[in-house]
Amino acid sequence: MDARKLDARLSVAPQIAPEEVADLAARGYRAIICNRPDGEGPDQPAFAEIEAAARAAGVEARHLPVVSGAVRDEDAEAFAQALNELPGPILAYCRTGTRSATLWALAQAREGARPLPDILAAAKAAGYDLSGVARRLANGGRLPRPEAGDERHDVLIVGAGAGGVAVAASLKRRRPDLDVAIIDPADVHYYQPGWTLVGGGVFAPRQTVMPMAQVIPDGVRWIKAAVAAFEPENDAVVLDGCKVVRYGRLIVAPGLRLAWEKIAGLPETLGRNGVTSNYRFDLAPYTWELVRGLRSGRAIFTQPPMPIKCAGAPQKAMYLSADHWLRQGVLKDIEVHFNNAGGVLFGVKDYVPALMEYVKRYDARLNFFHNLIAVDGPARKAVFEVREPDKEPRQVEMEFDMMHVTPPQVAPDFVRVSPLADEAGWVDVDPATLRHKRYENIWSLGDVMNAPNAKTAAAARKQAPVVAENVIADIDGKAPVATYDGYGSCPLTVERGKIVLAEFGYGGALKPSFPKFVIDGTRPSRLAWLLKEKLLPPIYWKAMLRGREWLAAPEPAPAAGA
């Protein structure tokens, strides 16, 4: 019998036989719900047979028949009532288990027991794809209202971060009359690359934030709402509250989610007890406060398993902090540790020699294969899981006076459980055209998609024109005309005033924007620092987000048959 657990009280299964009921009782089940009408199939035992076997085994049984493909609101209400009345654990069954799983999901949504992504994820883990009822789940488990009030756009963009706004601006530059809308619930837009410099005392926080209304491109409709689910088969996006927005083409760019909760004790101690992170706008100033105040002790900088946004950011925080301590004459009394869940300092080897010079300058301890799993803030202790090759996993506890944490990072829940996602939860795209591999009218860019490039704002700056070109080509009935080469940039702030400007594409191929005599990206450069501090912020706000594609012209797609 294939019983699949949905939560602590309920498992679902395909059709069961009367002779299996005693085994169910032996396994601890105390109640059975049948969601299949009698006579639905020629080989189906009647509910009376199941009920008799249940009575003999001391198990309660209830018949709540539901017609396949026609689950009514009353059915979901009756199922929810049964879950509350019957003793658990409970097994519900139908022909395949799908109806029972659907009824459970609708009951969960009706009672507000858990968020929509959690419901879909639990069903998916049990082997049931309930994306077809996502709109109903978003409507509190009830059949949604008629769609007369729903809206439609030629191009719909999910996410108004760097990638979403940039591609909207690029589309409008190419075709000003194009009907474009962006969905995003946020009130403000952040320049996240600036947070490293906030944590290093270079930028003020206000330099990295702007009201969202000021960055949405002219002529683009801003739908200020959160996405609940995707319905790619219907060319539709479902919003919280069950409003439906339809599209001709969809661009998915909501970024990723910082999974602070994956580290035990971390959410409770962030912003206090010496625990900080430049990955949050409100915490970056605390980083600088801790750096200025530390005169002795141990400072730990962590990096979780990939993928993460801006893979160099964890060590940037370390370099800028250690540089400050060196200039203040206190570095000799501070023990600096860089605890990296991976096995290398930086993924592109050409930049490692220059970085290692600074590791030695700051006398930093590199602890590879060390993944932060728990924090006790009041005790100033951190626990790392160490998984070195060919060795048994172990745990190491380290005390700290200051710890800069880079959190694990995952795709947003509404993406992870959607039909757009690959097995790891990221939007599944062709790495060259950034078009979805299964849905031809969907594209993705930025941190949420699964192309094997660095997740940086610089990457989004290059991706936006590629997606814009290919969407316009598709509207015009043409094949993709632009390709993305995997470009990403990571300005590694190795000291205040100098940067190692890492620029690379797919496979670690170097992709410098400037001649070597201007900026040699493999060496620390004062000019690269000026680029980062003085030029890149206005380029971001006034060029990238307005469709001015400075140094971002897309490469043409190979000719057919080439």
From TrEMBL:
Gene Ontology molecular functions: FAD binding; hydrolase activity; quinone binding; sulfide:quinone oxidoreductase activity
Pfam families: BLH_phosphatase, Pyr_redox_2
Cofactor field: FAD
SUPFAM superfamilies, sorted: (Phosphotyrosine protein) phosphatases II, FAD/NAD(P)-binding domain
InterPro entries: BLH_phosphatase-like (IPR005939), FAD/NAD-bd_sf (IPR036188), FAD/NAD-binding_dom (IPR023753), Prot-tyrosine_phosphatase-like (IPR029021), Sulphide_quinone_reductase (IPR015904)
GO biological process: sulfide oxidation, using sulfide:quinone oxidoreductase
The keyword Flavoprotein belongs to this UniProt entry's keyword annotation: yes
Keywords assigned: FAD, Flavoprotein, Oxidoreductase, Quinone, Transit peptide
Domain FAD/NAD(P)-binding: 153-266
Beta-lactamase hydrolase-like protein phosphatase-like domain location: 2-109
Entry keyword Nucleotide-binding: no
NCBIfam families: TIGR01244 family sulfur transferase (TIGR01244)
Entry protein name: Sulfide:quinone oxidoreductase
Organism expressing this protein natively: Oceanicella actignis
